[in-house]
Amino acid sequence: MSAYRFPSALTVLSAAFLLVSSNAAVAGPQQEKMKACNAEAKEKALKGDERRSFMSGCLSSGSAAKPTLTADEASALKDRKKQCRSEATDKALKGEERKSFIAECVKA
C-alpha cells in the first residue's frame, strides 16, 4: 500500500462548500445591486453609451445615479428616442454623427 491517502469525500465536499459559500457571501450584495441596475436599465430600454453611463452611476455610491422617471416620463422618453432614431435613419446618418444627432434630438 502506498503512503498517500486519498481525501475522503466528506473532506472534499466540505472544502468545496466553504469555497463556494465564501465567494457567494462576498459577491451577494454587489450581485443584487447589479441585478437591480440591469433590470432598471432594461426597463428604460437603454443601449450603448447611455446604458454604460447609467450602469456606472447606478453601481456607484448612488450620488451619480440619474433620477428615476415616472412611467409616463419613461414612456415619453422612449417615444422621443424612437422618433429621433427614425429621423436619423431618414437623414442616412451613420456612426458618431448619428449618435450625436440622436443625443441632441432627445435633449430638445
Question: How is this fold's topology laid out?
Answer:
Layout: H1 9-43, H2 48-59, H3 71-90, H4 95-107
Helix pairs in contact: 1-2, 3-4
Question: What does this protein look like?
Answer:
- The protein is 74% helix and 0% strand.
- By secondary structure, it is mainly α.
- The mean pLDDT is 78.
List descriptors.
0% strand; elongated; 4 helices; single chain; 108 residues; mainly alpha
- How many H/I helices? 4
Strand content: under 5%
The main sheet comes to: none
Outline type: elongated
Strand and helix order: HHHH
Give a summary of the structure in a few sentences:
By secondary structure, the protein is mainly α. 74% of the residues lie in helices and 0% in strands. The chain has helices spanning 9-43, 48-59, 71-90, 95-107.
